[in-house]
Amino acid sequence: LRPQAASPVATTRRDFLSRLDGLLVGADPADGTFVDSRFFHPTLGITLRFPAKWQTRNTPRAAVAHTQDKEAALLLSVAGEGDDPVKVARDAEKEAGVRLLERATVLDINGLRAVRSPVTVQSARGQMVLDFTWIAHGGIVYRILGISPAPRIAVYRPFFDQTASSFRAMTPADTAQIRETRLRVVTARNGERPAEVARRTGSAWSADEIAVANGLAAGAPLAAGQLIKIAVSELYRDRR
């Protein structure tokens, strides 16, 4: 390859920093996010509430919640395309080679077509109940799966019921609950230190994080007009 001259990305530090202003920091809520125990996926336009005090996490394949001891769990994932949850459930039944719909019940959950079916299976942990709910929204069929030891299903079934029945389309009020963190460039005051900049601007970064992001000593005094990168928690921008 022959090197060729190219225009610089920015001609001054101020110009360079202006290009970073507004950069998303950390996880993108558009890929799904938790606000307390409620999960929102603004790109898909869906939300549901997992049991309070269960541990939660969002992964590329599923939103997951489980008890502290991991005895029981709930997972939300995409099961297939279409508006017929029964068809998608039957396709899953054929693929798994297991009768998933023997005890199925067709439901309406918050105006959405759904089918619910508990299945008991044998595992290395003994008999387990897999509580399936397939529910259609916006051309996608989602699967809510509750997992519990069979002897404990009476304890966990109410949690599975509440989570499945909480699934619905998102509203503007839901979107207003979501926040995201963005990089912002602020101007320092004469003699300020990173800790003071953090307090004045409401930075989501600590003084030490601001120092690292700007290549400063944590207690270094700043010059008037010095441009400093911080992170700010802001209302989520709906990008649909």
3D structure, described in words:
- 22% of the residues lie in helices and 37% in strands.
- The protein is built from six helices and 14 strands.
- It has helices spanning 13-20, 85-96, 153-165, 172-175, 194-201, 207-213; strands spanning 24-25, 33-35, 38-41, 46-49, 55-58, 63-66, 73-81, 105-109, 112-123, 126-137, 140-149, 168-169, 179-187, 227-235.
- Strand 10 (126-137) and strand 11 form a beta hairpin.
- Helix 5 packs across helix 6.
- The longest helix is centred in the middle third of the chain and has 13 residues, at 153-165.
- The protein is elongated, with a radius of gyration of 24 Å.
Average of the residue pLDDT scores = 95
Radius of gyration, whole Å: 24 Å
Number of helices: 6
| CA distance, first residue to last residue | 40 Å
Task: Characterize the biggest β-sheet.
Answer: 7 strands, antiparallel
Q: Give the overall shape.
A: elongated
Poorly predicted runs are none
Biggest sheet, strands in spatial order?
5-6-7-11-10-9-8
Computed structural class: alpha+beta
| Approximate strand percentage | 35-45%
Give me the count of strands: 14
